[in-house]
Amino acid sequence: MATTRHPPSVEASTSAGGPGRRRLPGTTRRLLSNTLLRRGVAPFLLVLDASALSLAALAVGGVRGRTLVLAAVSLALFASGGLYRPRLTLSALDDLPTLVGRALAGGAVTTSLALVVDPKLVQPALLGVAALFAVLVVVERALAYSVVRAVRRRRRVAHPTLVLGGGRIGGLLMANLIAHPEYGLDPVGFLDDDPLLAPDERPAPLLGGFEALASAIVEFGVQEVIVAFASLSEGAMVDVLRTCDRLSCEIFVVPRLFEMGAAGRDTDVLWGLPVVRVRRAPFRTFTWRVKRVLDVVAAAVAVVVLAPVLGAIALAVRLEGGKGVLFRQERVGLDGRPFQVLKFRSLRPVDDSESETLWNIQHDDRLGPVGKFIRKTSLDELPQLFNILRGEMSVVGPRPERPFFVTEFSKAMPRYLARHRVPAGLTGWSQVHGLRGDTSIEERARFDNYYVEHWSLWLDIKVVLRTVASVIRGSGG
Q1: How far is residue 402's CA from residue 455's CA, in Å, rounded to a whole number?
Q2: Residues 6+ away with beta carbon under 8 Å from 428
Q3: Are residues 317 and 437 both part of a single domain?
Q4: Which of 249, 264, 279 finishes a domain?
Q5: What's the chain's average pLDDT?
Q6: Predicted local distance difference test score (pLDDT) of residue 115
């Protein structure tokens, strides 16, 4: 069975008469797509919910300044209940118990807070506002969802969608998406190395094998990828889907044994077929941007505070080893891009080849007292604060490695390269677990990839605290 290994052009897709013809031409439609569905409907729902609460307060009256407190509490409860999460299926009836329950709970919590602060602040009318808000918010949500579904049906806004898996479930899913545009997904085709469906059984074109995922995403502007029992093993599929993270795609998975019941909070049902939204990679979230701001602030403050220490180390290195206080070496960073890492020189290599390929110098006889000390205490790493300020590194992340070793390690461990999805770090999750120097590369890669998948600001704080403890103990290398 012949397959196309590279995605065809948009024109070819259009002439084929498949779903590829449903592109979103024109500035207006692209703007709608980016605004309404790329960002989701959450901002609009938030505004509408706040408006419903304001209307209830005006109708009941007598609550004065408590309305803002009620709004903050109620909307926070809505958010914690998942009422602003991205969804493909929108139903006011499904949301009704949560909407009503949390709207009334907002009134109760606000009243309880007033009772604790000062009983004189309690306003019985506040519970009336909460009750009216519960009614209005259900009506408002029903109308809003109707508008969203109508816009989707007319394909004014739609997400170009790829299905990974050319079997029975993949074909059924694709047919459902074509027949029901109210889900906001615009199917462009399948990807599968060994599709089970014959060409005349496919409701959309086969765009190639799994190796064509990246090019298909770029070619068709794909925003959603659905995994539907593809022919790849689960382990191999993980590596394929990481492409979606780097290209800012949302990932859905048809759960195994879904016939036994797989509904949950993160489950959408597409005309009888459940799909589970995969958690967005941490480096695509807002808090990741906060991480960069904290990196710059921390590095700038550290440079200023540690200026005397940096000067003293530079002087000691110069006195012990002569000219050339800083050591520059090519390392591999974000997305495999090389950069020049900065360190205090602990010894002078014989030539560039030794610098590029010598694995560890911890026990090198050429290390002098200063070199041994700054390596043992990790003070030789301090110039990397300037790499952080230049945006080449982060305070916390996988430690950067030299190109020679990246090539060697990636041959033996295919998932080694996955650690380059985020910037390299001055310290990292593997380092604080003692995986530095002459230790297992496979374990390092596993710890680094765990850090990438489970990143949080608190995880960074833990790494920094454990790094400080390690420096104090002098357990560097």
Answers
A1: 24
A2: 396, 397, 398, 399, 447, 448, 451, 463
A3: yes
A4: 279
A5: 82
A6: 80
Q: How confident is the model at residue 393 (pLDDT cuts 50, 70, 90)?
A: very high
Residue where a domain terminates, one of 279, 304, 329? 279
Share of the chain above pLDDT 90, in %: 37
> How many structural domains are present in the chain?
3
User: Nearest to residue 149, comparing CAs of 184, 185, 177?
Assistant: 184
| 111, 140: one domain | yes
Q: What is the pLDDT of residue 374?
A: 85
Non-local (6+) Cβ contacts of 257 within 8 A are none
**Paired residues of 187 in beta bridges:** 161
**Mapping DSSP to helix (H, G, I), strand (E, B) and coil, where does residue 440 land?**
coil
Residue 8 is predicted with a pLDDT of 36
The continuous run of DSSP H or E covering 275 comes out as: strand 273-277
Same domain, 185 and 92: no
Can you give the length of the chain in residues?
A: 477
How distant is the alpha carbon of residue 209 from its chain centre? 25
Q: Which residues contact 90 (CB under 8 A, 6 or more apart)?
A: 41, 145, 148, 149
CA distance 186 to 12: 17
The answer to whether residue 30 is domain-embedded is no
Query: Helix 42-60 and helix 66-80: axis angle, to 10°?
Result: 140
DSSP assignment letter at 197: S
Give the rounded distance of the alpha carbon of 118 from its chain centre: 44
423-442: average pLDDT: 86
- Same domain flag for 446 and 332: yes
Beta bridge partners of 342: 328
d(C-alpha 309, C-alpha 471), whole Å: 14
Closest CA to 215 of 9, 422, 1, 2: 9
Given a cut of 90, whether residue 175 has pLDDT beyond it is: yes
Q: Is the pLDDT reported for residue 16 higher than 60?
A: no
Establish if 236 belongs to a structural domain.
Answer: yes
Residues 176 and 275 in one domain: yes
Residues 114 and 253 in one domain: no
The 10s digit of each residue's pLDDT in 197-216 is 888 889 999 999 988 898 99
The yes-or-no verdict on residue 308 having pLDDT over 70 is yes
Beta strands in 158-312 (DSSP E): 159-164, 185-191, 224-227, 250-253, 267-270, 273-277
